[in-house]
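Q: Predict the assembly, please.
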Amino acid sequence: MCGTCGCSTTPDSLERLPKEEATETVSVLSNLLSKNNHAAAHNREHLDRAGVLCINLMSSPGAGKTALLEATIDALAGRYRIGVIEGDLETENDAERIRAKGVPAVQISTGTACHLDAHMVHRALHDLTLGDLDILFIENVGNLVCPASFDLGHHLNVTLLSTTEGDDKPAKYPVMFRSTDLMLLTKGDLLAVLDDFQPERAEAALRNLANAAPCLTVSSRDADSLAPWLNWLDARVADLKQGAPLNPVMQPDGALMHAAE
Amino acid sequence: MHELAVCQGLIGEVERVAALNGASEVTSVTVLIGPLSGVEIDLLQNAFPIARAGSVASEAELVVETGDIRVQCTGCGAQGPAAPNKLICSACGDWRVRVVSGDELLLKSVELSRAPASAN
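A: Predicted assembly structure:
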């Protein structure tokens, strides 16, 4: 007899009653961006197979990504075949600046989206002939927040911090700077007239994010200053040719450790 | 602003899990969002009703769990808490640490119900 109301149902008969629905909790532990990450891995496979080094450039708007690309294309002319994917909310302006250098450039207009994702890059890759390239730069949307969360299928992240910004930017935007493989301090020619930006303070803020990435000061207006950056690129092209696994610092080990619990 | 994109990814995962388990409806979705994941929990909560519309989770509740940031020092071996912009060893101050937790962006579990026909 049921102890609540005195009816004749027993726990056993309750079990046999037709249930309206059964609720169940299913354990999952999968990455929220797994669809994006799947597409990114696919992009990276294409790039690896073609032997194309792919660098994702990130910074705030106006830090000098396009100017750095123009100067880099000039400096590497005849040594590497370069291609560029440009991400902006609107206009073809940056792609036209790159094409003026005689380099293929595909513009992705994101509309209002604040970042590129792996699917957008996949579509852009269809407009490039990978066999004709050695290095592919992706100029991400100017934004120090959102691009850090999306793997595009690239090999390495490079984050630009211009000397006209604060040298504490890594402390203010830790998610972005934590995921960088190289920090470039751009507009280095202005250091002579800016007494409030100290490269060592910017580097210390980067180290506080447990990031060992190199920190280089460059100026797109001074070809000589680009040498360390070009050397870094040379070394990464060599890494890729030797089959070193190149993956951007994107997805955390933390997730895997939790999954193992 | 990328929380909506993250939420859309979340709903995609939820729909996959729901289909795999023959669910007629998803009633609750639990995610684990670390302080270093780059995702704002308030914005995620606001984006969720937009992303879930028309999906198997159209009435689902979003439960967000968050954890602490913990780092392990590669120098002295100590494990301890850290701040998002100061990932240094709390014992010896070294910056050469490994993030043990705090950067999670995970779908942890899904509470789902099955239609009477598919229930045992």
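Residues 34-50 of chain A form the longest helix (17 residues). The two ends of chain A are 43 Å apart (CA to CA).
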